Amino acid sequence: MKKLFVAAAATAVLALTSADVALAQAQKAPAAAQQRPAPSAGAIAAAKEILQLKNARAVYDGAVVSTIQSVKNSLMQSNLNLQRDIEEISLKLAGDLKGRESQIGDAMAQIYATDFTEQELKDLLAFYKSPLGKKSIEQEPKSIEASLNYMRNWGEDFALEVNELFRTELKKRGKDL
User: Fold this and answer.
1) Residue 40 in contact with residue 122, Cβ under 8 Å?
2) Measured distance CA(160)–CA(166) in Å, rounded
3) In 10 A of CB 123, how many CB atoms?
4) Contacts of 67 (CB under 8 A, 6+ apart)
5) Contact of 121 with 52, CB cutoff 8 Å
6) pLDDT at 72 over 60
7) What distance in Å separates the CA atoms of residue 121 and residue 112, rounded to the nearest whole number?
8) How far apart are CA 76 and CA 46, in angstroms?
């Protein structure tokens, strides 16, 4: 019983602490937002052009269809008798909501235009239009992919090495896994 009380008390303290932190952050958020001026139309236009050059749309293209598919699959699992209706509705929604991905692109441009000044965005745009910038746009995804593959392989190899070290240390202690 005492353990249950301690666990409940710890949970309550954690919840109150989390609520205090969330409240403090919420109170700070408006002040932080007020410190940043709204981006200019020129900054947003430059940001959109940068995102177009970097093919950012590839990141969110298909978000509407994949979200509808995910929700449809979830609904179908728990409502087997409604499969036909759910399938028909998913097709209707795909048509009705087509193009809503543009909201993501607009928000990304707004974020860029808030994080960078208009002049910085224009400078970036000039860079991305230069030969080195074009190469950067083309090569960066490949470099990132190769880096991620290296990290995954390194992690697998390192885990095997660490596993062997554990086994060696356990053997020294007269124990086996």
Assistant:
1) no
2) 10
3) 13
4) none
5) no
6) yes
7) 8
8) 43
Place 9 in a pLDDT band, splitting at 50, 70 and 90: very low
Q: Look up residue 26 and give its two tokens.
A: 């919420």
CA–CA separation, 33 vs 127, rounded Å? 29
Q: Is 107 exposed, middle or buried (0-12, 13-18, 19+ CB in 10 A)?
A: exposed
Least confident of 40-49, 75-84, 144-153: 75-84
The identity of residue 20, as a single letter, is D
Q: Decide: 26 and 101 in contact? Cβ < 8 Å.
A: no
Domain limits of the chain? Answer: 1-35, 131-177
Residue 109: its H or E element: helix 102-115
Instruction: For Cα atoms 31, 36, 39, give the angle at the middle one, nearest 5 degrees.
Output: 145
Give residue 55's region: left, alpha or beta (phi > 0; psi -120 to 50).
left
Amino acid present at 8: A
